[in-house]
């Protein structure tokens, strides 16, 4: 497969339920409008949230179930993988890694909410 990270980015944009445009304060209104127009052409169904300095209410990300399995199953990439019955995880295909943070005790709910809100 000759796909690049750019292909993965396009797949993610097309499939997303929510698109967050950050650093809006660093571009002109014209440039921001062009970005929003592009995103809406690529994915008409996704909600687009524009922000600066990553200021975003946690509820915007966590408060609403957006995923629609029926719509996902109709996506061409989903159908292709289902027909081929083969999937290479993106972590393998693109060399993406992650980590899990484990603490001896859970986060304090109010402190976590305050940290996310600031």
UniProtKB/TrEMBL annotation:
SUPFAM superfamilies for the chain: P-loop containing nucleoside triphosphate hydrolases (SSF52540)
Domain CobW/HypB/UreG nucleotide-binding: 4-49
InterPro entries listed in its UniProt record: CobW/HypB/UreG_nucleotide-bd, P-loop_NTPase, Zn_Chap_cDPG_Synth
Name the UniProt record assigns to this protein: CobW/HypB/UreG nucleotide-binding domain-containing protein
């Amino acid at each position: 497969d000759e796909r690049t990270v750019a292909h993965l980015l396009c797949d993610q944009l097309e499939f997303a339920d929510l698109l967050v445009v950050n650093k809006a304060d660093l571009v002109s209104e014209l440039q921001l409008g062009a970005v929003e127009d592009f995103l809406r052409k690529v994915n008409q169904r996704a909600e687009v949230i524009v922000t600066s300095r990553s200021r975003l209410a946690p509820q915007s990300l966590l408060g609403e179930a957006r995923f629609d399995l029926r719509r996902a199953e109709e996506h061409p990439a989903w159908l292709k993988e289902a027909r081929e019955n083969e999937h290479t995880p993106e972590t393998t295909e693109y060399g993406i890694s992650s980590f899990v943070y484990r603490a001896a005790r859970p986060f304090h709910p109010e402190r976590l909410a305050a940290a996310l809100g600031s």
